[in-house]
Amino acid sequence: MAHLRNVRLAALAFAVALIGGITLFPAPAAAQQPYHVVARWKIGGAGRWDYMHIDAKAHRLYIAHGDTVDVIDTRTGKSAGSITGLHGTHGIALDTAGKYGYISDGGGDAVVVFDRKTLAKVATIPAGQNPDGIAFEPVTQTVWAFNGRSSSATVISAYTNAEVATISLPGHPEFPVADGKGNVYDNIESTSQIARFDAQTKKITALWPAGCNEPSGLAIDTRNHRLFSVCRNQKMSVIDYKTGKVLATPSIGNGPDAARYSEKHNLAFASCGEGVLSVVDAAAPGYPTIETLPTQRGARTMAYDPETDRIYLATAEFGPAPAATAENPHPRPQAVPNSFAIFVVGR
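Request: output the structure for the sequence above.
Response:
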């Protein structure tokens, strides 16, 4: 009788759970839940675009957009202002005090400092030729701008808004990241290497093979000491940044230019210009690519908001490529005016 009573009680508990909407089965791992496009924000305007940077606490998305930095409220998708009067923006970095931001103004060969509250420009600091990737290093409170045409890095003190060092590089630099412990890492695209810098001495302390060809975007996992570098040969190279060892090279889409990492979900992302977002499971053996999400052609740069688990991708509609000329034998298709938009990806 006791056995029968236990069976009846178990059956009753199961029925109550079902009625209450409670599952008795384990939920699928977060890494297996697919991402999808949840919104599209029309930004408009003309010109090219490049990197984006998220300020999760302030709900702001900064977008390098031609001669302007657009600032978008991520709660509404509406403009929160802009920083104008620039000459060809590439990237944005933010200080740790919540006071200033820094723009690599490639066309002006300068780093422009702005007030994050008012968006007013407060300083313009000369850099090398065409500063591109940019990062803030918190231990030394320095800004690192990597100059594409002069193959150098300009290091700026956030205390004085003045250059404190210029570092020669072995090749053309791309995107940098900082580990929060006094080291900066940067892809050297033309030599397929990753450089490590000591922020105190302002010197290169290591040069490692990237593990893939022509690396561009770079993301960092500071908890597990990993770098995620995305490359032209449709690979993401996962590197142990304590040793320089390549851990894996999962396949990704074509034309990547940005990488991001989610510490909470242990996922790495690659935004690819062919029009896909590649999602890599950084917790699984072999680092498998678990999703290839169709986005839109040209969506090669992105930002990731760890607070909301949202990914932001920038692109536009494109018309036909102009006719080839002797000066430009491989012209790119031109963006359709006012078609620039942000695609929001979530679960």
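The chain has two domains: 29-47+214-347, 85-209.
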